[in-house]
Each structure stands twice: as structure tokens, then as C-alpha cells.
Amino acid sequence: MTKKELIEGGWIDKYVLGLTTAAESSEVERMANLYPEIQEQVNAARHKICGNFNRKLTKSVFQNSFLTKRKIIRGSALVVFVSVAAFAFLCREHLNLKATYNSQCAKLAQEEAKLAEMSSFSRHVSERSDFINASSTERIKVKGCESTPEAEVLVFQCKKSGKMMLQVVDLPELTKGHLYEVWMQSSDSIHHMIGQLHPPIKYDSLYALRGALNYSKLQITSIDPVNKISSPVCIATVNL
Fold first, then answer.
1. What's the pTM?
2. pLDDT band at 13; cut points 50, 70, 90
3. How far apart are CA 180 and CA 118, in angstroms?
4. Is 10 helix (H, G, I), strand (E, B) or coil?
5. Residue 187: closest CA among 216, 226, 222, 159
6. Of the candidates 87, 125, 85, which has an alpha carbon nearest to the alpha carbon of residue 206?
7. Which among 25, 28, 164, 189 has most CB atoms closer than 10 A?
8. Mean predicted confidence (pLDDT) in 212-230
């Protein structure tokens, strides 16, 4: 192969691109050793071809890298936004549920308190009714004295246990600071205080008294504790 055939036949580019056979490559290398200008053309072809390849490869890599980073940033931003929104939603739901739970607990506590109060009142009424209507319970009317003829109380007493309770039918209104005391006179003529009534007097309630079995008289007395003055209001003689 002559130098002219090598140059005009494009063998240099084929050699650089690796498109020549082993024999053709040897011939190109032989000619490059003989002619410096052939070697220069081989070097120029290598630089040209490799430079274009590197520029395209670098541009593609940079473009792909930039696009990948942009996608990653966008994806990360979306994930962060969704996470923050979900966290805010969960916090709001937690606070709403907590407020609802506390409100329901407060309502439940109020309902339980009302139920307990109603149950206690119902039990109290039932026990009072059972006590008043029991066959062993005796009713004692304690009528007013001459100065208070309209006054009257009822004393309920169990003849077996001696348990006593008092219900106000009518009593004069007390002066501020005064109170009523309930006294009994035992069979040996000794007086014992068995209860006190403090204002306001409740006409729909039963007042518990200290129980007794052996007595001959009941008396309701108005007491002025400051001046230590007492006056009878209701008296009843009991035949036991």
C-alpha cells in the first residue's frame, strides 16, 4: 500500500476506529513508522474522534445527572410535603379526639354523679317508706302548747329497736340563731336530749333522733343559745 492509497483510501480513520484487519493495521503502523506525516494524521484522527466522543458522553452524563438530581429533589420535596400534611392531619385529629374524649368523660362523670344521687335518694325514700309503713313502727303526734297551738310534729318509733325519726308538720319560724331541740323524759323522770333541728326546717324530710324505748314524755323546745333561753313548743305524753 502506497502513502497516497493510505491517505485517500480512508485507512487512517478505519484504523483509529478499529475497523481494519490485523494485516491492514500492521500496514498502517508500518507506513506511520516510515512517514511522520502519516503518524501525525493518525494522532489527529484519534484526537478528533475521541474528543467528539468524550464531549458527547460528558454532555449526556451531565444532562442525565442534572435530570436525575432534579427528579430526586422534586420527589423528596413531595415526600416531605405529604409527610408534613399527614403529620398535621394526625395532630389535628388527635387533638379533636382528645377533646371529644375529655368532653365525653366529663359528661359520663356528671351522669354517674346524677345516677348515684338519684339512687341514693331513691334508696333513702324507700328506706323511709319501709320504716314509716312497717307494722312495728308507731306514730306519735306531738301537739303544740298553749302559746303555739298550731305547732305539730310526728315521731315515728320502731317498737322493737327503738329507732326514732321525726317529721315536721308545722313549727313556728325560728329567729335567726335559734334552733329546736327534741327532749324525752325517761320513766325515772330524767330528761335526755335526743335530737336537734337547725334552720331551715324541711317539712318533707325525716330527722333522725337518738333511739329510746322507755320514756313517758316527748317535747320540742325552742332554744336561744346566746341568751340561754328555752321555751316549749310541742309536748306529748306517751303511754308505754
1. 0.49
2. confident
3. 30
4. coil
5. 216
6. 125
7. 164
8. 88
> Looking at this protein, which amino acid is placed at residue 178?
H
What does the buried/exposed string (b/e) look like for 68-94 if buried means 16 or more CB atoms within 10 Å of the residue's CB? Answer: eeeeeeeeeeeeeeeeeeeeeeeeeee
Block residue for cell numbers 301537739: 143
| Span 16-29, average pLDDT | 88
| Pick from 225, 193, 232, 226: nearest CA to 209 | 193
Q: Judge whether 183 and 219 are in contact, CB under 8 Å.
A: yes
Cell of 155: 315521731
Residue 97 grid cell: 379526639
Beta bridge partners of 170: 152
Which residues neighbour 226 within 8 Å (Cβ) at sequence distance 6 or greater?
177
**Residues across the chain:** 240
